[in-house]
Amino acid sequence: MYDWTGFYAGVNLGYLTGHNPSNYSLDSAPVGASMTLAPRGAIGGVQAGYNKQIAHWVFGVEADWQGADADDFYCTNCGVDPGGGMTQRVSWIATVRGRAGLGTGPLLFYGTAGAAFGRVSVDVNCCVGGQVLVSNLAATRTGWTAGTGIEAALGGNWTVKAEYLYLHLGTAFQVVPFAPPFAPDAVRAGGEFNAHLARLGVNYRFGQETAGASWSQTRDWAGAYAGVNLGFGAARTPLTQELVATPAATLRSVVAPDGAVGGGQVGFNWQAGRVVAGLEADVQWSAQKDSICRGCPPTPGFGTSIVEHRLPWLVTARARIGYGAGPALLYVTGGGAFGRVEQNLSQFAPPLSSFSAARFERGGWVVGGGIEAAIAENWSAKLEYLHINLGTFRSQGNIGIVASTYESDISNNLYRVGLNYRFGASPLVAAKN
């Protein structure tokens, strides 16, 4: 029987996507702006921990540190006076977590939760009447994290894991005062710091090689399969609004639809030794939605724009290629994507108002990766990350005196677990090197 007990250390690499409800306003103005900034970028770091196995249950603690290169920004009347904006950045994150899971021989299915720490910053700039304000607030924030993962033994004392974590690092705001003659007016900007992490890690367990670490059998992944999946989607759709009459008064913001996703998949694998190649298609229902507002609440003498994005469904058709390590399959995937994007646009300049709705079916591309692990003779479970890009769309709004052109890029990040059933005979066969 494989034993997970002992100290271990390793490295990880992955991707971070933020989802930060934020606000930007002047104290003297009756209206402000709300948006959802989504810092995103690569992460990489190290982890160390200890496991204790009792029968089939595994309990442990783990600490990790990741460097990050993630930022996002908002600006209104970009580059003109009056105008301004803010940038959010994440430069590193760390967690200290408990882990608990089920060890089925050389596979570990686990949940994890604990404390999170991160270095975050809010940069604010503003220009009014020739005054230029630039301010940076950087701090180490604390919060919490929770997630799940699958870890599989590779042989010897080495293991590999695929993991998803959600982090909440609280709220950070800046208040930046003006000098005379605009004092005591001030800019208020900031928001929450939340993040979704998808990462792949490799661990080395110290001590004597555990029993069962060398494979005498590997799973035969060849054949047709079908299954279901459930997860979470976190999209980022950068939005540019240009006023037709005054193109210098540009708004650059972010709509970040997020919500539950679920659906089904079918596929077919071919296997040669430990190399597995295949095709997979899936259909996803999505509850992802988000809205932003410029000039809220609607007030006489001020223009207001409210933009809402929804992503109700998407489809992917992908190739997969991977490596079979005993009862686990490590794979990367890529192909085509197709989905529906819905935009609702409300504009107000009291007493005038307008509403428009645009519906688009967009095609694009998808890449990702995951780990799939046997849980019974013909059943397997997987943990998967997909990044989807559906291109750019344009729309227009007009309230009689103000006409606007909107342009959005659509990218989506899916974090999901899946359950598959493979049709045919028993998938256990002798190892082929």
CATH fold group of the largest domain: Porin
Q: Biggest sheet, open or closed, and with what strands and sense?
A: 19 strands, antiparallel
Structural class based on helices, strands and sheet pairing = mainly beta
Mean pLDDT: 88
The helix content is: under 10%
Low-pLDDT parts are: none
Distance between the termini: 22 Å
Number of strands: 21
The top-level CATH class of the largest domain is Mainly Beta
Rg result = 25 Å
Characterize the structure shown.
The structure is a single chain. This protein has 433 residues and is mainly beta. It has 2 domains: 1-212, Porin; 215-433, Porin, CATH 2.40.160. 0% of the residues lie in helices and 80% in strands. The chain has no helices and 21 strands. The protein has strands at residues 6-18, 20-26, 32-37, 40-54, 57-76, 83-104, 107-128, 131-155, 158-177, 186-205, 217-219, 223-243, 251-255, 258-272, 275-296, 304-325, 328-349, 352-374, 379-398, 403-422, 428-430. β7 (107-128) and β8 (131-155) form a beta hairpin. The chain is globular. The two termini are 22 Å apart. The model has no long low-confidence stretch (mean pLDDT 88).
